[in-house]
Write a structure and sequence with these properties.
Keywords: Heme, Iron, Metal-binding, Oxidoreductase, Peroxidase, Signal
InterPro entries: Chloroperoxidase, Chloroperoxidase-like_sf
Largest sheet: 2 strands, antiparallel
Helix content: 40-55%
Cofactor: heme b
Strand order of the largest sheet: 1-2
GO molecular function, one term: peroxidase activity
Bound molecules: protoporphyrin IX containing FE, 2-acetamido-2-deoxy-beta-D-glucopyranose
Protein name: Cloroperoxidase
Order of helices and strands: HHHHHEHHEHH
Strand content: under 5%
Distance between the termini: 49 Å
Shape: globular
Number of helices: 9
């Protein structure tokens, strides 16, 4: 509690110092507070980001279906039931350590070859040890291919297109296959890899640009922060559903890689 309070105070003084008090655009009660000791986080940036903003319990523990429904609707403007089947998948794998089959702790999701698979964009493979935490070295290879740090000369340079994202994903999987002698090209990996690329694109989509802003992708993966400060608002686009994700999955899969 004490820690949390001093953290918020720190963020508030930052806001006061920043031009136009830009941090004030974080919705009240949903300020970004990254993981504190004792809290649980997952290999999934989408869930961690929500916990870091209090759209899921900040503890990351005892996550139930109602919490996921609330989070995805309020943080990202998905129809509340969009992730019901993802939640159910976690339940069906019996990976929970909470003692309640209807809930899990975020770190439970790192169990290998259950929901978690090889060739992630921002995590290392289980073979190398930690498949749960953000891995800056793995991510750097992907970020480079997404052009996240390229000099942005034109408006066009500020966005990641479906084509660029699909190629970066395929290249990351190719790298992982080359170095991991136990790479598991499971059915889950084969669909999950383009599936999670579709997920971050849909979540961070700028409908007018038909692409995702690089600054939003950086914030989401590197800080596990909702890019409010970079202009994101959950109300910007139209409500997303599993159909939106399905359509993006098709677009990602259609790219020749
Ligand atoms: C109950 C709902 C969810 C569950 C159980 C879940 C679980 C997971 C798991 C276990 C992974 C690791 C897969 C891997 O090994 O690469 C993952 C990755 C990922 N998830 Fe989720 N997730 C959920 C919801 C979401 C949401 C709402 C978003 C987006 C807003 C999201 C975006 C992603 C992305 C982009 C990755 C890929 C990360 C990477 O490759 O580095 N997920 N998710
Ligand atoms: C999970 O547990 C249930 C009930 O004990 C069992 O029927 C099911 O086969 C288990 N699933 C997996 C993937 O181990
Ligand atoms: C298990 O979790 C569910 C969902 O939060 C809750 O409704 C139920 O009461 C919990 N069961 C026990 C035994 O605590
Ligand atoms: C690959 O993963 C699947 C589950 O996704 C699992 O059933 C299978 O045993 C794994 N294969 C190896 C060789 O570990
Ligand atoms: C989308 O969700 C609806 C309602 O929850 C469900 O009936 C449908 O099968 C889902 N479609 C896909 C492609 O997952």
């Amino acid at each position: 509690m004490r820690l949390t309070l001093s953290f918020s105070t720190c963020l508030l003084s930052l806001a006061a110092a920043s031009p136009a008090g830009s941090l004030a655009r974080e919705p009240k009660g949903h300020e970004w507070i990254p993981k504190l000791p004792g809290q649980s986080r997952s290999p999934c940036p989408g869930l961690n980001v929500m916990a870091n903003h209090g759209y899921l319990p900040r503890s990351g523990k005892n996550i139930d279906l109602a919490a996921v429904r609330y989070g995805v609707a309020n943080a990202y403007n998905y129809a509340p039931t969009t992730f019901d089947s993802a939640f159910q998948m976690a339940v069906d794998f019996n990976l929970t350590t909470t003692g309640n089959a209807s809930t899990f702790n975020l770190a439970d999701l790192a169990a290998h070859d259950k929901v978690e698979f090889d060739g992630s964009l921002s995590r290392n493979d289980h073979y190398f040890g930690d498949d749960n935490s953000f891995n800056p070295f793995i991510w750097a290879t992907v970020a480079k291919r997404l052009g996240l740090y390229d000099i942005q000369r034109s408006q066009k340079d500020k966005y990641v297109t479906v084509e660029v994202a699909a190629k970066a994903r395929a290249a990351r999987v190719k790298d992982a296959k080359r170095v991991n002698p136990e790479f598991n090209a499971s059915a889950n990996e084969v669909t999950g890899s383009p599936g999670t690329t579709a997920l971050y694109l849909v979540t961070l989509w700028d409908e007018k640009a038909d692409a995702a802003p690089k600054s939003w992708i950086k914030s989401f993966f590197e800080q596990e922060r909702i890019p409010y400060l970079e202009g994101y608002a959950s109300s910007l686009g139209t409500q997303k559903t599993n159909l939106t994700i399905g359509a993006m999955f098709q677009r990602v899969s259609a790219v020749e890689v």
